[in-house]
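Hi R.,

As promised, here are both runs. First protein below:
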Amino acid sequence: MKIVYPLLISTIAGLSTILGSFLVFLHIKKNNIQSFIAFCLSFSLGVMISVSITDLIPNSYFTIIKRFNFLIGTIIAIICFLIGYYLTNKLNKSIEKNKKKKDSSNLYRIGILSMLALMLHNFPEGIATFMSAYEDLNLGITLGIAIMMHNIPEGIAIAIPIYYATNSKAKAIKHTLISGLSEPLGAIIAYLFLSKYISMITISYVLLFVAGIMITLSINELLKEALSYKKDKMVLLGILVGAILIIINHFIS
C-alpha cells in the first residue's frame, strides 16, 4: 500500500506533459502559423536549455565531484554530456533518412527527437519522484509539482512540431503521451528492479547525458528551424518566456 501514493505522484507528474499538447487545438490564423511555430520552437528550446543549465548539469556535476574529485568528476561529466551530443546527431541522421515526406521532415524530426530526449529526461525523473515520495511523501509531492510545471512546456516541444508536420492532432497527443508515460514507467522499474541499485550518482550520469541531448537538440535543431521562419522577434520572445518560466519554477518549488 505504501507504493500507491508515490506511483500516483509520478504518474500525474508524467502525464502533465499531455497538457502541453492541447495547444494543437488552438485555431491559429493561416498568416500567423509561422509566427506561432517559431514561438513554440524557441519556447521549447528556452525550456530545455534552462532546465539543463539550471538543474540537470549543476546538480549532477556537484554530485559527481563529491563522489570522486574535481578532475575525475569533471572528466566523467564531460564524457556523459558528449555521449548525449553524439547520440543526438546519430538519431537525427537516422530519423532524417527514414522520413519520406521532405516538406515536413524538419518539424517531424524535431518532434521525434524532442520526444526521445524528454522520455530519457522523464525516466530518471520518475525514479527520483517515486523514491522521494516513498521515503517522504511531502518531499515527493513537492518534487512532483515542480516536475509537473516544467513537463507542461516540454509537451509543447513534442506536440507542436509533430502536429504541423503531420496535420494530425492524434499523432501529436500520442507522442506526447508516450513521453509522459516514461515517468511512471521509471517509477515502476525503480520499485520492481532497481531500488537496491539506484543511487544519486547513477541518476547524475543519466541526467548529464540527457542534458547533452537536450542542449544539442535545442541548438542544432530547434533554434535552426525556428530561425528559418524569419520571425526573429518571436524567436527571442519564445526563448525568454521559456527561460523565465523555468527560473520561476525553481523559485516556487
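And here is the second one, sequence first, then its C-alpha cells:
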Amino acid sequence: MAKEHMSRGSNAVVKSTANRIIDMIVVLVCLIAIAVCLLPMMNVLAVSLSSKAAITRNLVYFWPVDLDLEAYKSVFNDSGMRHTLWLSVVVTVTSTLFCMLMTTLCAYPLSQRRFPGRALFNTLIILTMYFNAGMIPDYLNIKRLGLLNNFWVMVLPAGISVFNMIILKSFFRNIPESLQESAEMEGASHWTILSRIYLPLSTPALATIALFYAVGRWNGFQDVRLYVTDPKLYTIQFRLYQIIMRQASTDANMEGVQLLVDSDSIRAASVMFATIPILAVYPWLQRYFVSGVTIGAVKG
C-alpha cells in the first residue's frame, strides 16, 4: 500500500510538472502572438510622432524620437480627411444597424424547429458562403439597381453575413423552448417573443455580431473603390488607400525638395487617424465578445 501511495504521489508530481511546462509554453506563444500584433502598431504610432530627421536616419522603432506633432496637424487640418472620417462613422453606424436587423430577422425563423422548410432554407443560405456570381455580375447588378455613386451602395449589398447569422441562430436555439411556449400560451406573437424574450437574452451574441459588422464596414474600402467615383462619398479607409498608393509617386517627384513633414510620418498619422476610432469602440463590447462567440457556437 505504501509503495502504491508513493507511486501515485510521484505520478501526481510528474503531471503537475508537465502541466506547468505546458502552461509556460502556452503563455510564451500568447506573448509572441501579442508582440507580433502589437509591435507593428507601436512602430506606426512612433513614426507618426517622430521628427523628419529621426525618421530619415532610421532611428525610430517602437518609441517616438524628437516628438513632433506636425504630421497630425497636417492630417487634422485637411478638411477632406475630416469629411471622410465623419462619413465613415455615418456609414458604419447605418450599415451595422441595417445588418443587425437583417441578421436577426433571418436567424429567428431559422431557429424555430417548427418552421416549415427550415432545412432547405438553411442549405440554400449556406451555399452562398461558398459560391457567388463574381465581380462583373455584381457590378452589373449594382449598376442596374442605380446604386453607383450612391450612399446605399456601402450599406445594402453587405446587408447580411451568413457566418454571423449562423452564430445568432445557434444562440437563439440555446434559449429554452419553455420560455417561448409559455409566451405563446399567453397569446404573445412572434414579434413579441423576439423583442421581449430572444433579444434581451441574446445581448452577448448581438454585441459580438455588431462588433464584427462595425469593424468589417469600417475597414472595408473595396466596394468604394469599385462603385464610387464621387470624392464626397469616399470613406476614411479608401482615402487612406489613396494616400498610401500616391505617396510613392509623390516621393519620387519631390526628390531633393526639403519638406517640413516626412511622407512616412504623414502616412503613419493617417493610419492612426483611421484606426483609433474603431479601437475606441472595442473596450465597450469586449466583455460580451468571448461569451457571444463560444455560446453561439455550441450548436449548429
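A quick note on the second one: Confidence is low (pLDDT under 50) at residues 252-261, 296-300. Let me know what you think.

Best,
J.
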